[in-house]
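Hypothesis: this fold can be encoded by more than one sequence.
Test: take the structure tokens below, design a sequence, compare later.
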């Protein structure tokens, strides 16, 4: 059987890269703090003595509440992606989309010859 001490040491070793990244990454900390701040404010605004049905109805009908929830979720996703070392591919994806559209226009049998030669 594995000793408790060994389990703790293994867990600490697995978490260390994430902790190091969280300590050194200013954007990650900002995303987490923004998400926490938004969620805390939203919780205070929503729950304030209301029952679950009232809160759920407000979330379902209030655009401002849904926008705040979306912002908090986006901040948490961004923080999670940064923590896991995922890169942002927004610029690459936009470039590929524009290139695909341009190639589609150039090689389209209807518009291609006129566009390519003109």
């Amino acid at each position: 059987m594995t000793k408790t001490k060994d389990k703790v040491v293994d867990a600490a070793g697995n978490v260390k890269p994430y902790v190091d990244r969280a300590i050194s990454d200013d954007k990650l900390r900002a995303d987490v703090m923004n998400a926490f701040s938004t969620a805390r404010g939203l919780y205070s605004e929503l729950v304030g003595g209301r029952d679950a049905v009232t809160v759920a109805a407000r979330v379902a009908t209030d655009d401002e509440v849904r926008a705040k929830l979306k912002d908090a979720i986006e901040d948490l996703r961004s923080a999670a992606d940064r923590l896991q070392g995922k890169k942002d591919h927004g610029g690459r994806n936009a470039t590929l989309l524009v290139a695909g559209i341009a190639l589609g226009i150039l090689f389209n049998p209807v518009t291609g010859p006129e566009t390519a030669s003109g």
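The mean pLDDT is 74. The first helix runs from residue 4 to 24.
Hypothesis status: open.
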